[in-house]
Write a structure and sequence with these properties.
Shape: globular
Number of strands: 0
Strand content: under 5%
Largest sheet: none
Order of helices and strands: HHHHHHHHHHHHH
Helix content: over 70%
Number of helices: 13
Radius of gyration: 24 Å
Structural class: mainly alpha
C-alpha cells in the first residue's frame, strides 16, 4: 500500500504540467550558478555582502511572483508548486532565515554583522520568505482541490510528500558531492598563493610551544599547533 501510494505520487508529479517561467532550464541554471558564486563571495569576501544577500532574496521572490501569477490564473501545477518550494529553500536561504532568527533572539550573527545598514529590511524579507514557504507547503496538501482543479490527478498524500522530501534531500546531497573536488582545488590554490604566510604562521606557532620529546610525536605536533588556540 505504501509503495503504490508513493508511485502514484511520483507519477502525478511526472505527468503534471510545467511552466517554463517557473522551472525553465535558464531559471534552474542561473539559480545554481548564482548560489555557487554567492557562497564563494560570502565566505571569502572581507567587504560588505549586501549585494550578495539581495541577489538571494531577488531570486527567491522572482520565483514567488511567477508562482503567484500562475496561482491567480489557476494555472499553478503540482510540479510547479513543488519546484518553487524546493528551489527557493537553498542552503543560503536557510542560512539567511537562521541568521534572522538569531538576530531576533538578540544573539550574535556573523551575517548581519557584515550587512551594514540594511539589517531591518533584510530581516523583514527573510521572515516573509519563511511565511511563504509555510503557506505554499500547506496550500499543496490542504487546498489541492481548489488550487489544482485543472490537474488530471490530485493524488498528494503525506506519505508521498515524506518520500519526496527524502529523495530530494538525497539527490541534493549527491549533487553537492560533485563540488567537493572543486573546493579542494580552491584550497590548493589558496595554499600555493599564500604559502609564505602559512609558513610564517607555522613558525610563529612553533615558537610559542615547547617541542615534544619523542621524534614521532613531533609529527603530530605540526597539525596540533594549528588546531590549538593561539
Amino acid at each position: 500500500m505504501l509503495h503504490s501510494s508513493v508511485l502514484a505520487y511520483w507519477d502525478c508529479l511526472a505527468r503534471s504540467d510545467r511552466n517554463p517561467d517557473i522551472q525553465g532550464y535558464a531559471v534552474r541554471l542561473s539559480t545554481y550558478i548564482a548560489n555557487l558564486c554567492l557562497v564563494i563571495l560570502m565566505t571569502w569576501s572581507q567587504g560588505n555582502i549586501n549585494s550578495s544577500v539581495h541577489v538571494i532574496l531577488m531570486q527567491a521572490y522572482t520565483i514567488f511572483i511567477a508562482a503567484s501569477v500562475s496561482l491567480s490564473r489557476k494555472k499553478l501545477s503540482i510540479a510547479d508548486a513543488h519546484f518553487v518550494f524546493s528551489i527557493t529553500i537553498s542552503p543560503l536561504s536557510l542560512y539567511l532565515v537562521y541568521s534572522t532568527f538569531r538576530l531576533m533572539m538578540r544573539k550574535p550573527t556573523t551575517l548581519y554583522r557584515r550587512l551594514g545598514e540594511s539589517k531591518t529590511w533584510t530581516a523583514i524579507w527573510s521572515t516573509l520568505m519563511l511565511v511563504i514557504w509555510i503557506v505554499l507547503e500547506c496550500m499543496i496538501y490542504a487546498t489541492r482541490g481548489y488550487v489544482f482543479d485543472r490537474e488530471t490527478c490530485t493524488i498528494v498524500t503525506f506519505k508521498g510528500w515524506l518520500f519526496y522530501r527524502l529523495a530530494a534531500a538525497a539527490v541534493s546531497f549527491n549533487y553537492a558531492l560533485f563540488f567537493v573536488p572543486v573546493l579542494l582545488f580552491m584550497y590548493l590554490l589558496y595554499s600555493l598563493r599564500h604559502c609564505k604566510d602559512i609558513y610564517r604562521e607555522y613558525k610563529r606557532c612553533q615558537g610559542k610551544v615547547v617541542k615534544w620529546r619523542f621524534p614521532f610525536s613531533r609529527i603530530l605536533q605540526i597539525p596540533w599547533s594549528f588546531l590549538r588556540p593561539s
